[in-house]
Amino acid sequence: MAGLGKRLGCEAMGTAWLVFIGCGSSVLDTHRVLQGSGVLEMSLAFGLALVTASYAFGKVSGAHFNPAVTVGFAVANRFPVRDLLPYIAAQILGALLAAALLAHIASGRPGFELAASEFAANGFGAHSPADYPLQSVLVLEFVLSFAFVAACLLTVARKELAPLAPFICGCSLMLVYLISIPVTNGSANPARSTAQALFVGNWALDQLWLFWAAPLAAAIAAGLLVSFLKGPPEVSAQAQRADGQVDLA
């Protein structure tokens, strides 16, 4: 297993890539901003960003790039709890760096403002792209986050799927965003939501709680389900470190 510092660096870089490519496909696309289109493009951008980052960094950090995924793996006993908070901190830092870069680039466009339609912030009610109320957004975020985290856990648990795991998880994320973009601008990732909300401020920060509560609750439920279905992870002799800890990378 790589050292914690290397793993945290990979998590930060992978999350930054995910947020920059995914949100950038909306923020920097003037046609999408003006016409309100681009759901397929944004979904594909997030999916491909996850695939490429996972293949690049997966062998080092496990390619979570999402606090909900990290929590789900920890609950399912497939990730050391002691590394939970450092991973989440690295993911948020990476997302913030990506959002800062996007804000800097987009600010060069005449008339740019840090508004929901232009900076891919997540929201409900009047700040939902299609005015979906809180209860609808809460249910959708929980269901889609649960499905995504469960898909990641179940895919990783099957050794024969290891070479395809990044592709499968990327496709799963693309499907999640295809459904959720018209409702919330697409989240299922608290780090991604936090970064955009901090730059938009005001209402985005007021509504940010939902985009932490729903994905994390869903991740806990998915982790418990996978732990029940699969039992404790199988550990080979080669996966044991000298200190007795399990190599989960």
TrEMBL record:
TM ranges: 12-28, 34-57, 84-106, 137-157, 164-183, 209-229
Bilayer topology: Multi-pass membrane protein
Alphabetic keyword roster: Cell membrane, Membrane, Transmembrane, Transmembrane helix, Transport
Cross-referenced InterPro entries: Aquaporin-like, Aquaporin_transptr, MIP, MIP_CS
Keyword Transmembrane helix appears in the UniProt entry: yes
Location(s) in or outside the cell: Cell membrane
Pfam families (alphabetical): MIP
UniProt record similarity statement: Belongs to the MIP/aquaporin (TC 1.A.8) family.
PANTHER family: AQUAPORIN TRANSPORTER, MIP17260P
Protein name (record): Aquaporin Z
